[in-house]
Amino acid sequence: MKVLIADDENISRRRLEKFLESMDYEVTSCKDGIEAWEAIQSENAPNLLILDWMMPGMDGLEICRKVRKLAREPYTFILLLTSKSEQDDIIKGMEAGADDYITKPFNKNELRVRLRAGKRIVELNEELLAVRNDLEKQAIHDGLTGLYNRNYMSEILDKEFPRTLRYQTDLSCLLLDLDYFKDVNDTFGHAFGDLVLREFANCLEQEARKIDIPFRYGGEEFLLLLPNTGIAGARNVAEKIRTACEKKTYDDGNNSTTVTVSIGIASVKQNQLLESKELIAFADKALYRAKTEGRNRVEVYMKEYYEQLKDGKSIDNKDFRYLKENLSLVLEKTKRASIESLKLLARDMSDDAYKQHNHYVGQYISLIGERLALPPSIIETFKRAATLHDNFKVLLRKNLKNKDKVLNTEEKIEIEDHPYMLSELIGLFDFFSNEKSILLYHHENFDGTGYPGGLKENEIPLGARIFTIADAIAVMLTERSYSKKLSPEEIIKELADNAGKQFDPWLISLFFDIIEKQKLLPVPIEVLTKAKERLREVS
């Protein structure tokens, strides 16, 4: 290990230098404080310092203060050499940032012991730093491909998008999806499928430019952000990636295949975007078009094209592909109209508490969905399920209205039948098939104690797990005849206490991050800290 000594007394310094070399330390020797400070600031400077208290130019205490102000990692251990033995002087040295001291003339055995302790402190700090760096890397990287993950993509986009608007530059997004990837898994197995994902990720990194930022978006979907790049540049990068992928063969020694990729492109300037989430949403629409037009192709989101579809105007070359897109838009309109009709039907039977509850549920589903960087279409599906749930619940409400007493057995059975009743009602609307599983399983508990299926953990659909949390928060925020409104501190405690039981602890952790970042609930930081500690125990 390297050690730096600074002493203006030549004989004392040389004696100390020889002693340290005999212990196999690599020694940097300085004759005064200024020379020592220059050496400390250099690259690969020692993390063990032995400083004389009294030196010309800069004394040991001043160097201590400067070193601590640097807050360098790994930790720097400082041992003061001093002729001072008064307790007040020693305290002064420690307050300046020294870790230990030894009086002159030093005893070799005492110095050996103190240096051994300092060396161990530095080594432990290096180990902890390595662990922390590894954890930080895991937090932002996808475990399979090594690319940045979806959560980190949201952070980067939140930084790049405002910068793009501020400086009037451009930002493009490529959304990439491996074609027929399910067939690869079904034919060759998931292990081979993982190999394809890893090697495609490598290919993506190689073909992208140095300024481009690649992410694994989820499953077989990848995303590439291109700062300071317009549509033309983005298309060139996309075609380069598509061509390389088309030519690539995936081989594990036993199986071999090729896999093509479809790519959708959108840019801030081309589409005159004002919100970051629109960039991904529009790239997703372009990707969908690339898929419907035959796959293994690049498509750019064209606002005029989609406006024509929404307005129902005729376009050239209508065929089955365009018919599918038109029908998708019609279906979206049908869903919205159906929900609005249900709202009207339930309006006269509902109260202000119901409206406030529905508002809270939608708000928290959006916040959690955006924190997970889910596509807008998925978030809308979750919110639709919540709206359907609340409206159906109002329409189903009979003798449970305004209950202020404990439910009897018959009433409990009726409550437990609600998921089936909701599922049966949603079955009347075949186009709400994605929302159906959320309504059926929103009473499942993370630990498997819920109903109707006794599902647990990731067996429960993500939408149902998110809805359960959002609905519970909304209930706790709303004053009702049968339940009191809870304070923000009580809500945090309830969520933390039931994480791992009723709620998904990972989603609760994300929600606490949202609260802290967006000041969503007025709770003291110590309350959140305690709740997060509780979550770590559960995890």
UniProtKB/TrEMBL annotation:
<dbReference type="GO" id="GO:0000160">
    <property type="term" value="P:phosphorelay signal transduction system"/>
</dbReference>
<dbReference type="Pfam" id="PF00072">
    <property type="entry name" value="Response_reg"/>
</dbReference>
<dbReference type="InterPro" id="IPR029787">
    <property type="entry name" value="Nucleotide_cyclase"/>
</dbReference>
<dbReference type="InterPro" id="IPR000160">
    <property type="entry name" value="GGDEF_dom"/>
</dbReference>
<dbReference type="InterPro" id="IPR001789">
    <property type="entry name" value="Sig_transdc_resp-reg_receiver"/>
</dbReference>
<feature type="domain" description="GGDEF">
    <location>
        <begin position="169"/>
        <end position="303"/>
    </location>
</feature>
<feature type="modified residue" description="4-aspartylphosphate">
    <location>
        <position position="52"/>
    </location>
</feature>
<dbReference type="GO" id="GO:0052621">
    <property type="term" value="F:diguanylate cyclase activity"/>
</dbReference>
<dbReference type="GO" id="GO:0005886">
    <property type="term" value="C:plasma membrane"/>
</dbReference>
<protein>
    <recommendedName>
        <fullName>diguanylate cyclase</fullName>
        <ecNumber>2.7.7.65</ecNumber>
    </recommendedName>
</protein>
<dbReference type="InterPro" id="IPR043128">
    <property type="entry name" value="Rev_trsase/Diguanyl_cyclase"/>
</dbReference>
<dbReference type="InterPro" id="IPR037522">
    <property type="entry name" value="HD_GYP_dom"/>
</dbReference>
<dbReference type="InterPro" id="IPR011006">
    <property type="entry name" value="CheY-like_superfamily"/>
</dbReference>
<feature type="domain" description="HD-GYP">
    <location>
        <begin position="331"/>
        <end position="527"/>
    </location>
</feature>
<dbReference type="InterPro" id="IPR003607">
    <property type="entry name" value="HD/PDEase_dom"/>
</dbReference>
<keyword id="KW-0597">Phosphoprotein</keyword>
<dbReference type="GO" id="GO:0043709">
    <property type="term" value="P:cell adhesion involved in single-species biofilm formation"/>
</dbReference>
<dbReference type="InterPro" id="IPR050469">
    <property type="entry name" value="Diguanylate_Cyclase"/>
</dbReference>
<dbReference type="GO" id="GO:1902201">
    <property type="term" value="P:negative regulation of bacterial-type flagellum-dependent cell motility"/>
</dbReference>
<dbReference type="Pfam" id="PF13487">
    <property type="entry name" value="HD_5"/>
</dbReference>
<dbReference type="Pfam" id="PF00990">
    <property type="entry name" value="GGDEF"/>
</dbReference>
<feature type="domain" description="Response regulatory">
    <location>
        <begin position="2"/>
        <end position="119"/>
    </location>
</feature>
